[in-house]
Amino acid sequence: MRLAMLLLATVTRAGVAQQPAPCASTEHRQFDFWIGDWEVTGARGQKAGTNRIERILGGCALYESWTGAGPSRGHSLNAFDAGDNKWHQTWMDNSGTVLLISGGIVNGEMVMEGERRLPDGTRQLERITWTPNADGSVRQHWQSSRDAGMRWTTVFDGVYKRVGGRG
Question: Whose CA is closest to 145, among 115, 112, 120?
């Protein structure tokens, strides 16, 4: 058994059995600026909550765990799909909100959009933009539109600052 493991290690080091990591591309790393433990404040500086974003599934997805300053709680899965060359997010929270949004990097920002139907049947567009700031913080701006994108209303505008670190 020990000899077999030694031979396998030797073959792997020689490059015969190595395969590229499935999610190691540059595109799969585009949203890494959001990874971390965060204190989140609203537009007026009030505490909005905490958020933890971590890489999971061998680096193929990001998992978000949101705890609001009030009763709000939510989770999302985020992943890059090489098939359509887009990032996708599925968000669910304890108010019953489900968002399915997708997009990618636009001018250095992660921008994802999608449509959802409200309980009254209204179609609403959702757009979330994450902007990495020079100081290591991240701005998250969530907007909605009920008129097919003619006018946008801010749902949330917050700043993520790393817990115990830069930003």
Answer: 115
User: Can you tell me the distance from the alpha carbon of 9 to that of 123, in angstroms, rounded to the nearest whole number?
Assistant: 56
Helix, strand, or coil (residue 35): coil
pLDDT tens digits, 9-45? 444 455 555 777 789 899 999 999 999 999 999 988 9
Helix (H/G/I), strand (E/B), else coil: 108: coil
**Within a 10 A sphere around the Cβ of 145, how many other Cβ atoms?**
17
Alpha helices per DSSP H over the chain: 2-13
Specify the CATH number of the domain 23-162.
2.40.128.20
Measuring CA to CA, which residue among 124, 164, 118, 131 is closest to residue 146?
Answer: 124
- Residue 22 CA, chain-centre distance (Å), reads 19
Residue 29 one-letter amino acid = R
Supply the pLDDT for residue 10: 45
pLDDT higher than 80, residue 6: no
Distance CA 130, CA 155 (A): 14
Domain boundaries, the chain: 23-162
Per-residue pLDDT, averaged over 104-112, amounts to: 98
Angstrom distance (rounded) from CA 6 to CA 8: 5
